[in-house]
Write a structure and sequence with these properties.
With 283 residues, the protein is of the alpha/beta class. It is 31% helix and 30% strand. The strands form two sheets. The chain has a seven-stranded mixed β-sheet, with helices on both faces. A six-stranded mixed β-sheet has the order 9-8-10-11-12-13, with helices on one face. α1 (27-38) packs across α8, α3 (98-105) runs parallel beside α4 and α7 (175-188) crosses α9. The relative contact order is 0.13.
């Protein structure tokens, strides 16, 4: 779009700052995601990789300000210098040490976790939640699955009324997502404390391939269809399918998930409760 008077490209009014921080091996993907997000959303994008350079070059590539190899102890100074304090800020955490994550959390309005292995991140999540809001892109990916399961319970239904569900089986390519989903069910389902959660890893599969919640002869079943664009959900009683429907799956591109997180401002208590439960669920 061009300015009507000068003919120069019109400047968009920025609405937020995203600070992506992580190890060098995840830099290229993060840069591509931030560029794609910037094409659709008026955000200030900052990408920082950590290393051993106390004074790395700050350069701008397209819509992304990049700092490579920054010594971790200078992370706070870099973020404070580059972010726009008058705008909401979101930290996209792609992995690192606990101290770095806690330090970054003090400077932003929201932390979104996205480590390959979130063990250390989840361990410090309660501490971070005391100073800022926190989420995880795995939780964002689970939104559609959580919504579909919740719909089974939204309307009084004789097919599941009074059912005490005892077993939850989650299959997928990311056991951490399965564990987080199981923790959500444990923390929200009546008698959830006695729910047996089984997480099966499917090599090369989507984060979640299928979910089966069973008890008292009833099974609620969801599965990602082979086209990867739809989810089939069904209610079964004594092995007979009583109802079935197909709906769209979530668009799990990273720029889409981050865009969803940018729209969230409030604390997510359901996520925090699920994360506490996830620490004790073993795949």
């Amino acid at each position: 779009m061009e300015d009507a008077v000068t003919g120069a490209p019109a400047r968009r009014t920025l609405t937020a700052t995203i600070v992506a921080v992580g190890p060098p091996e995840r830099t290229r993907e993060a840069h591509e995601v931030l560029q794609a997000l910037a094409a659709k959303t008026a955000v200030r994008n900052i990408l920082i990789t950590l290393g051993d350079n106390p004074a790395p070059e700050i350069r701008t590539e397209g819509d992304v300000v990049t700092i490579e190899g920054l010594v971790p102890r200078y992370l706070n100074n870099a973020v404070a210098r580059l972010r726009v304090s008058s705008m909401p800020s979101l930290a996209w955490w792609r992995g690192g040490e606990r101290e770095e994550l806690e330090s970054l959390a003090d400077l932003v309005d929201r932390v979104v976790l996205d480590s390959v292995d979130p063990t250390r991140d989840w361990a410090v999540a309660d501490t971070i939640a005391q100073s800022t809001t926190i989420s995880d892109l795995r939780w964002t990916r689970l939104t559609r699955w959580r919504s579909l399961v919740a719909q089974f319970f939204d309307i009084t239904d004789a097919r599941i009324d009074g059912t005490v569900f005892s077993t939850l089986d989650v299959r997928g390519g990311d056991p951490w997502s399965g564990r987080l989903f199981g923790a959500w069910m444990t923390s929200r389902l009546p008698h959830g404390e006695s729910l047996q959660v089984n997480v099966e890893e499917v090599s090369g599969g989507a984060p979640i391939e299928s979910i089966s919640l069973a008890g008292d002869g009833t099974r609620l079943f969801l599965r990602l269809l082979p086209n990867r664009h739809c989810i089939e959900s069904s209610v079964e009683k004594s092995g007979e399918v009583l109802a079935s429907r197909i709906g769209p799956a979530v668009d799990d591109r990273l720029e889409v998930l981050l865009g969803e997180e940018l729209r969230v401002r409030s604390r997510d208590v359901a996520f925090e409760d699920a994360l506490r439960q996830a620490k004790v669920i073993h795949d």
